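Posting this for the archive.
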Amino acid sequence: MRYAVITPDGTLTHHDDVPDWDALVGPEGEVRVSLGREAAAAAWVNDCGLRFPDRYPRNITGSCLVAALGANIQPYAGTIVVTGWDPSATPRGELEIRDLPLPVEFLDVVHGDVVKALGGQTPRDMSPSWAEQMREIADHVRTAPAPGITVRPVTF
């Protein structure tokens, strides 16, 4: 299975084996991050990563990268995995997770754009406002509080 991994230090690598979710995103469980309705890809993050900052540092580059690909803007912690995704597979009883569609070079280009923007440059033919937006997302990822958990009593 083709997929990509973005580590908390911002490194992007490509792989061609079966992902070991526990080893990649953590044993608490992975959750799918939508990259938009039309995307043939999905990101996978640790479901509880923000609750354990000592184990899962915030993934600033990865959070910006998935936002640039259409995900909601929010902090993600730990390793992020990007796979292919077929949202129409469920009704046919097929698995939705697919190989990362080729060309994977697109992911490399967007990653490079994000890294340049976070370094203070305006990448390729992107506008200065796009680069500034990536820096604003990075600031949000660094400083946003971890979400709280509300526990409500159950009454019968």
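The beta strands are 3-6, 12-15, 30-34, 41-46, 80-85, 97-98. Residues 9 and 25 are 14 Å apart (CA to CA).
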